[in-house]
Structures are given as C-alpha cells and as structure tokens.
Backbone:
C-alpha cells in the first residue's frame, strides 16, 4: 500500500497571552506513513481515535530547549492498535493514557503510561476522556478520599457543569447531601438542574455571598475556580468544613497574594491543612485513652513536661504579662494554695 | 469561725497593648468569706489549688458590657471541695475545668463545665493544667486525629518547648519520626535535646530555611507560631504534607494578608484543606471500583456527563483556544477518526 497522510498538530511557538491557532499551534499534513512497511522494532502501531483538550495544555506551552525547538503535543487520548509486534498488545485492542500524540498514527515502543482499555458497549470512547476518564476519576477519588461526606451535609461545587464538577454533584446527591452549585450560563444552569442539584445559580447574575448565606453554612467546598468565590466560601464555612482545592487556577498567573500562593502549594503538592483546637477535637474518642496512659507516663518520667510554677494568687497579674510577652520559660501555672 | 480573707484577681480595665499588673488586672483582698456559714444552697464550696495562665487570656480582655463594668477572671484550674450539699460531690474531692475563678474560695452550683478529677500519686496537680491537661490533650488528640504519621517521616514542630510542642515531639518520637524543632533560648534548646528531638535549633540565631532545606522536606508541620516560619515550612513541604495549625496567633492582631486570614479561619473553625490532583490520589485503592461501577452508570444514564465533541484533528488549535478562554460548553474532546 502506498504511504498515506499522517497529519499532526505541532506546538510551534510560545503564546503571548492566549494561544493562536495556526501560529502557536500548527496543523501539519506534510508527514506520511506506510502502514504496511513502517518498522515496528518490537513495538506496535496505533491509530488515534479521540483526544482530550484540557486546561493544563497552556502550562505546557513553554520552550522545550534553549535552541528554541518546539514539539509535538501529547495528551489524554484513546487509540486502536492496527499493527503489532508486541506480546500482549493485539491488533484491535485499545490503549488509553496521557501520552497519546496529537497525530493520526504513531508507533509505540512499550505501553509505558498507556493502558489497555475495554469500552462499555453503550459508551463512546470520548466519555473515557471525561466522566469515565481522568476528570471523572479525580472527582471520584477526591470525593471518596477527602470529603468525609455525611448525609444531610451541605456541599458547594463551583464550575458544576464541568466534567469534574458534574461528577462531584452526582456523587454528593448519591451520598444524601444538599448540593449548592454555580455556573456561568443559562444552558449550564439548566444542565445542573437536570443533575438534581438542590440550589443552582448563575454566578454572573447572582451574588454568591447572598446565596451561601441563605443556603449555607458549607460543610464541604469543592473548588474548581478559586479567587473571590473561594473567599465567599471561607466566609460561609461551617466548623470542621472540608475544602477540596481541585482547580483554583483562575488568576494564578498574576497572583501575588499569599493566600493564593498558599492554595497553589496546597493544590500542587496535595497539602492537607487542619485547624487544631481543643473545642473541635473528638474528646470522647481520645480522652479515656489519654487519661489511661499519659499521666502515668508523665509520672514515671517516660514523658517529660515543661512547667514554670509561680506561688501566690497575687502574682497572677505578673504571670499574665509574662505569658503575653513570651518571657515565661515554660507552661505557666500559679500555685494558689496547698491542700 | 470568723470570716477570713477571700482574695481574688479582677479584670479592671482593657489594656492598651500589654496588660499592666495592678492596673488592668488588680489583686483584691477586700472580700471575706466565713467557711462555716457561707450559704451553699445545694451547691458546694471549693478552695482553689492551682491555676493556669494561658495566652488566650488576652483575647478575653475586652469590655464585658457597655456600662464599663469589668469582671473576675476564670481559667483552667484545679480546686478541692471543702463543704458540700451537692450529691456526688464529696468534701475532699477535686474538680478540674476551665471555669475556675482566680479567687481563693468559690461557691459553685452544679458541676457545669467542671469535672471530678483524680490525681496520679506521683504527679502534682499543676501538671493537670499542662502536659496532662488542655495543652497536652490538644497535642495528643490533634496528633492522633490529623497527623497520619508514619514511621520514618519528618515532622517540624515550632515552639517545641511549650506544653503543646513538647508533647507533640515526644508522641512523634514514639511513632518513629524524625523530629525537627525550634525554640528561642539556649535553655529551651537544651530541654528539646533532652526530649530526644533529632534536629534542634534556635530560630533567633539560625536560618530556618537553611535547616529545613538540609533536614527536610517536611511530611508534617505542627505550627504553634505562624508568620515567616510557616512560609519557610510551606517552601519545604513534601507531597501529601499535613499542616496542623494549632497556634498561628503571633501577628494576627495587625495581619492584613489573606494567607493569615485563611489560616485564621482554618484554626478558628478547624477547617480542613486538601489539594486534589490525580497524580497524588491512591489509584490502586479506587480505580478498580471506579471502572467496575461508573462506566455502567454513565451508559445507563444513572449518571449524566457533559461533553462537547469536535470532529477533526485540524480543529485541535481552535479547541485549545476555546478551553483557555473558557468558551467551550462542556468537557472538550476531539474526535480524530472512527474505527
């Protein structure tokens, strides 16, 4: 068979601001491939079926070398195997992963980050890039791992009409929560109602703070947006609220505020932050074991403790001052009387 | 028996800046009490033995009424019962709680927030205000509930010589962690070494960032301080780090930065913040159940999904732009080829 076109998309130059189709990215049709004779060298040839285009692409649009040579685009995708010399990777099987090139045909050596995937007979492959793929999995795992959701609680989901947000909303409804969610268009608001969300509003035409004040406080906040809506969520958070920072990307590029840096770190390394105060800790869960073990260990010297004892109720004022100034040497206690 | 002195400490006026002993707080000896004839009215009379002086006292030093009448000071303390008409509260028993007045004798009606307490024979009552009391319990419960500590991990504890910090350090060593900790004096540094901490430094004479860069990254940060040291900890945090914000009080009074507001909210309502990205989620724990359930529910329509399919590899550049601008209507996928 004669060589055929093997079209691809190339990342051609670094965008100043938004990417420019045809300039920062180029659709290139000059490349050809002969499907019968292309050397596989123990690998396999795939035909790309469907590709995902995600927000993170923009972050990857940077110079890849000091020589200014740019590169092919890869992302989440599904492809079918059309020729193979690789054991276990038969023709007709499908592969899924985040390293699929934006190119019609590709020779692959070893599965690497790709995995063999079977499709549900009633689902198109495209869904495996959304609700049944990385975004849906992020929603599913993040919800199960971090939400600590309980029936009757209130969750607020931003960008609810996205592939992550819409999955979170539906998982929350299955778990018996009251769901508040927002989107930026009439169509998306209608879609959100169809998901069964309890309170749906267009954040462009409604005051988020008013909605949350009326419908909150929030036990769980799933954040795909960040910025001012995050601040509004903070102002309406319940005690022991869980904030799941999944995408606070908007505005990060120019952000200077510490709170954004803080949240960026939370997001990028999956930082877990917990407020710790006695009033909100589960006393019944821990105090019996605390009293059963700790005093004896303190008495035996197995555990040490710092203490600065001042004698006399008349010294309380001085001790208060030393604690405020931090000049006390250890835990300050005032001995008022012997028995 | 004749009436005897019943000295007390009164909160007399709101401090401008630091409290002033004898002025903002007054030791008052004018009050008397007759221990034999004081009416109990079904309550009990306690003699104060030991009182705790804590940093939070300053926060309570505000006008209690618009008429400018100020009040007695109460806090954590231990007292002994000297007379009683209350069933179950026998003479000679001890009570502990955060409502003990700074006063020699007090008539109490009902235990309320007080609890009957027995002392370990080898521990003075003062320890029940520190390591065996509220600070020790905060450390114990916070560590068990939120640290998710694993042997071999690295924890950084600020204000390690305090009653909270020193307990955290010792719990961390018992759990097999490497402990980095800081204090502000030579004596405190020596005490920290005696606790078995692995890396001890004086933050006034050492660069915290240098220490953490060399000895980190940090898996757990127990923060009693906040401010610049918190920033240094953030810069040296490991993936999946847990930040336990127990006291970031320093500097809050004048703080304007959002990060401090954010952390103040985390602390005051015990907010839990989790970064959520696919790369740090436990795939092996959830993906089998995800694939076993979600695709079938999407196929049956039990779960809905948003999707915007564009046909043709040549449209990738346009789709990239629409995703960056947010003009896409749903999860963006590009259909490259049919099988």
Residues:
């Amino acid at each position: 068979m004669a060589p055929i076109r093997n079209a691809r998309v190339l990342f051609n130059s670094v965008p100043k601001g938004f990417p420019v189709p045809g300039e920062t990215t180029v659709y290139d049709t000059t490349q050809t491939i002969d499907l019968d004779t292309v050397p596989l060298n123990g690998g396999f040839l795939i035909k790309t079926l469907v590709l995902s285009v995600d927000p993170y692409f923009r972050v990857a649009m940077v110079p890849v070398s000091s020589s200014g040579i740019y590169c092919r685009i890869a992302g989440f995708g599904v492809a079918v195997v059309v020729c193979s010399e690789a054991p276990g990777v038969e023709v007709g099987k499908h592969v899924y992963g985040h390293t699929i090139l934006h190119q019609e045909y590709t020779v692959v050596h070893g599965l690497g980050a790709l995995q063999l995937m079977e499709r549900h007979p009633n689902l198109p492959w495209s869904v495996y890039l959304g609700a049944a793929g990385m975004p849906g999995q992020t929603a599913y795992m993040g919800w199960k791992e971090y939400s600590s959701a309980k029936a009757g609680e209130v969750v607020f989901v931003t960008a609810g009409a996205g592939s992550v947000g819409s999955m979170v909303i539906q998982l929350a409804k299955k778990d018996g929560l009251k769901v508040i969610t927002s989107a930026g268009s009439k169509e998306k608001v209608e879609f959100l109602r169809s998901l069964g969300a309890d309170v749906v509003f267009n954040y462009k035409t409604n005051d988020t703070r008013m909605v949350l004040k009326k419908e909150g406080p929030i036990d769980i906040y799933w954040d795909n947006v960040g910025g001012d809506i995050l601040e509004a969520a903070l102002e309406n958070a319940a005690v022991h609220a869980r904030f799941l920072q999944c995408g606070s990307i908007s505005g990060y590029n120019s952000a200077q505020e510490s709170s954004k840096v803080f949240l960026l770190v939370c997001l990028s390394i999956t930082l877990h932050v917990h407020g710790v105060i006695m009033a909100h800790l589960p006393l019944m869960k821990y105090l019996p074991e605390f009293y059963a073990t700790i005093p004896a260990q303190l008495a035996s010297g197995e555990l040490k403790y710092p203490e600065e004892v001042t004698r006399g109720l008349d010294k309380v004022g001085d001790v208060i001052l030393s604690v405020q100034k931090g000049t006390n040497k250890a835990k300050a206690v005032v001995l008022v009387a012997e028995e």
User: Anything to note?
Assistant: Chain B touches chain A through 141 residues (CB under 8 Å). The first strand of chain B starts at residue 4 and ends at 5. Residues 251-256 of chain B have pLDDT under 50 and may be disordered. The domain at 4-129 of chain B is CATH 3.90.180.10 (Quinone Oxidoreductase; Chain A, domain 1).
